[in-house]
From TrEMBL:
It comes from the Bacteria. Residues 21-359, 366-579 form the DUF2264 domain. Pfam families: DUF2264 (PF10022), DUF2264_C (PF20938). The lineage of its organism: Bacteria, Pseudomonadati, Pseudomonadota, Alphaproteobacteria, Hyphomicrobiales. This is DUF2264 domain-containing protein.
Amino acid sequence: MSVFTPPAGLFNPLADNPCRTREDVEKALQALVRPLDPFRSPGGARVRLGASAAHFDLTAADFEGFARPLWGLAPAAAGGATWIDWEPVARGLAAGTDPEHPEYWGPVGDKDQRLVELAAIGLTLRLAGEHVWQPLSDKQKRNVADYLLAARPKEYADNNWKFFRLMVDLGLKVVGVPFDPEPSNRFREEIDALYLGDGWYRDGSPRHVDHYIPFAFHFYGLILATLDDDPRNERFRERARAFAADISRWYADDGAALVFGRSMTYRFATGGIWGAMAFASEEALPWGVIKGYYLRLLRWWTRRPIADRDGVLSIGYTYPNLLMSENYNSAGSPYWALKAFLPLALSADHPFWSAEELPCPTRSTPRALRHPGMVVSNPPGDSIALSSGQQNLTMRFGAEKYAKFAYSARYGFSVESDERRFFDAVFDGAIGFSDDGRHGRTRETNEIALIADDTLYALWHPFPDVEVESWVYWAEPFHVRVHRVRTPRPLHTIEGGFAVAREDGIVPILDQESGRALAETRTDLSAIVDLGSTVKRTGRAHRAPPNTNLIAAKTIVPQLLGQIPAGESLLVCAVIAQGNPTTVRDALRNLPPNPDVAALKHLMAESGVSVTAMTGAADC
């Protein structure tokens, strides 16, 4: 029987791009923006890419479709690109800011999505003003200036949004429009208040520390440090230099980025940190190393079905998936991915482009990252972060996105698609509890979160009257989880390892027995093994519901199932998954020893440091 193979590039405009040179990267940008042309409105101000909804109005969503491609187009123009048709963009800018035009973007309100998109307008005026400002009439220029000025006094969200006003200021300055600098001075102080140290920020309150830090805080900060002569911007360079070594651990040696937190539909926007370092000529790591992280990331994305049939980027991560979307994701949202193309503003002789791409450095030992509350290891083809568990009760699936025990660049994470089917739940990287066999509860927040050496500790409550103490640490190539559970009533429990892709037509090897579960595919082996719990747990290689994982549409996850009696129980397991089944099978012959819980408690008492970013408590 023949196997149907779709045409190359059907679901990925980058499929045939080697992404090794500046020319390749510019062609990648062309391939991504070309499919948008048919969806532009007659006046040019609106780009409508789909019928799915976000929480903001449709006009703002259309504006998002107009503005987000500019994050790539404006730098390309600054770097000399001549293939961009700026006429409809300039026409759209004039129409969108004209209250009398039918395609007017509408007035800007407090915490309005328009505030987000205006940041791209500010950067475009600064980098490509001759294409979008100079062609306008005097009246049209006044409309654009008035629209930007009217937005500046509005209330911005207390997080990375603080940068958006500063980005608008860049545009106003270059076109000679005066404005009151005081609101922006206040925002600079408020951005500084979000700084935690060692290059890390918190993205609002509670203290979310996720991938917005590299592709928002450092991205905008380095742009300001390059384009704005305010001496206070020097701090953004200093912080980026401090940040580089830590954030590099979020990248696997094959280019994949750690999957953690919200807004994953922005995909390779995470490469914005490396592109911004290049743009700012900030050699925080050797140029060949920075270039390697940047290009490997783009190459990783050339192999994923990230677009619909017409070549428009879909909402999702490695495949279309509305289940994973945030309530602020419209059909145009994924084009924040084009932040990755900032280095196109640089000429081919810049050291970033002229340097030889270097392979990923060897990372032989785990690295503790206190501010995000993680201990990161980099086995071949992966970046795995053991996490203390951040609190995010406002995002859809916030517990899955922030509070699991382990996150992976290779295996991503999964969400639960039905809260009333406990025994069908995924629980990858997590442990779930149920008192009725139907509804499940996992960690959502912590009462206490500590880090000592390379060990993480958390005290949390899946139910108000059930207390769980969890220790997580590396015993490479495994990570070990220890849970002390105190409950007044019996509970069902399921604990999961990493979910691996399940291919149609390929029969995976399943190994299920008391105390362990393995799921082996053609390329990967994932396992979870009980190390001596006080209750009997049975292994299961669970075929998870489809479209629940960010990386693979169908997965298998090894799990341990058991029943916990009333009183105190101890649950202990070792977890491993890698892209080399032979390596994993060899490791399973030498399991880590059963941990000494008394020693773990002593370690925390003597050396534990509060991971305040994790608690969501008042000190945040």
